[in-house]
Every structure is written in C-alpha cells, then in structure tokens.
Amino acid sequence: MMLKNKVALITGVGSGMGEAMAKLFAAEGANVVGADINQEAINRVINNIRETGGAAIGVKADVSQPNDIEIMIKSAVKEYGRLDILVNNAGIMDNFVPVAELSEELWDRIMNVNVKGPFLACREALKIMLKQGRGVIINNASVGGLFGTRGGAAYVASKHALIGLTKNIGAIYHDQGIRCVAIAPGGVKTNIALTLKNPNELGAGKLARGVGPAPMGEPEEIASLALFLASDDASFINGTVIVADGGWTAY
Hints:
Rossmann fold; globular; two-stranded parallel ribbon; alpha/beta; 7-stranded parallel beta sheet; 7 helices
C-alpha cells in the first residue's frame, strides 16, 4: 500500500476529485480526514470508505473561514495523532467574468476559497509537519493558473496565486522535510460546474475561440496522480506543477 498508516486531510471531499482522492487514499492505507461544506456529502463519502474497510472521519468546514480551517486541522491530529498529507482540493469558478465586469464581491469570494483557504490550511498544517520533520502538501490548481483564458479574471488570478504559493512553500521548507506540489487539471467531470452559472459571453467566448473544447478527464485520473505525488515514490518532486489535461494545453 502506497500510503499505509499515513494521515491525509483532503478538502472538497464531498464530490468529484476530492471524493475520488479520499476513496483511493483510503484504499492505499491512509487514514483519511475528509472536509467539505456539505455535511450530507461528507457522510456519504466517509460511510462508503468505512464500509469498504477504510479508515476515515469527516469534518464540516468552509475553507474560506479561518476558524473552520483550525478545527479541520486539529480534528485530524486529535483523531490520528499526526498529519502527513494535506490536499487543498476545494475550489470554485467565477463564470468567466472579465475584469471590466468583475464585482469586488465575486473577486473576494473566489480569492477566499481558492487562495486564502489553502494558505490558511498550509499555515496550520505546517505547524504540525515541521514538528514531525516530514509532510506533503498538494494544491489542486488548474491550467487556469498557467494561462489567461481558462477561466475569468478572478479564477485565473486565484490559480496563478495558488501555484505561486506552492512554489514558495516547496522552496522554503524542502530542507525541513516538506514537499509541496500543485496539480493543474484541465477539464474534469466534477461538480465544480455547478458553481458556473450563465458564463460571461466575452470571457467564455475567448476560451472557445482560442483553444477549443477541453478533453474531459475523470476524477479518478486526477486522484491517481495525487496518490503518486503524496507517496514516497514522488520524493524528488517538489515546488512544481504537474499538468493533467489530456493534452489540451499542448495545442
């Protein structure tokens, strides 16, 4: 088992990539702490893991709220005594809104969930990992963090920021046993589309004209990549971004 006896905290565990990661990590021996804003979804995923012989607990958490982040991290340590892996998976989209039409309210919401939440979780997790002398942080970014038209202004900026945070953490803490890596998925069949309502015609139109439709991957394909990056097999991968987009950004 690739993660035997490791403790892994995964946000956005209620559906999509987070759910797939939680189930795969548990199947590979990890003690999973699954966090999500939706209690019903948490219960469904955690119960499924337990029914199939895995170890898991759930924590209701809004990653944009500092108190929820603190409770989330403390719950992992209280239950399992340590924290080996943090996966910042939770995220939302912005309807492809360009800057000239972007409200401060939408900007703040996207930044709070996609950047501030991972920052707070990383900060709290590092307090534990540095004491242990070991830990892995995986930030689920996006090809939107590498290019200009895979989302609206707020989404693209947030994912660029998350990738920058990843590189900084990887560079600063590598000699203290910490690795930090970002995954940049392209199109994946997840519920994040539910946060995309009435896409802005200008923003979405630029994407459609510029690069064409994205190949659609399965959540399990991203989960398999996350599993590898969380494992000791990826011990020399740090402070970088791994693109998983079916070749979308190759053309």
